[in-house]
Amino acid sequence: xxxxxxxxxxxxxxxxxxxxxxxxxxxxxxxxxxxxxxxxxxxxxxxxxxxxxxxxxxxxxxxxxxxxxxxxxxxxxxxxxxxxxxxxxxxxxxxxxxxxxxxxxxxxxxxxxxx
Length: 115
Known about the structure:
This protein has strands spanning 3-7, 10-12, 18-25, 34-39, 46-51, 58-60, 68-73, 78-83, 92-98, 109-113.
């Protein structure tokens, strides 16, 4: 079964950091560009960041540029999202998927930013 499992979310104060992980099972991530997405309460899912299959190219939404860093370790079949200087508006469920999305969406990982 092809799966992507997100982890690493939690409750953090404004200005804090979290590192999210996206682990693949049932297939190899090596050949895929991967994106991180998020869905805030009452809003549509939006793209946050993406990374090319080899990791040489990355892109970020304007709202997270300079604060978030996407990376990948193909040996571990995992993509990461380092999130620094978190803001209350970053509160959302975070998901990962291939680009374009081809894997059934997982449960995501909840990120809550609150004092």
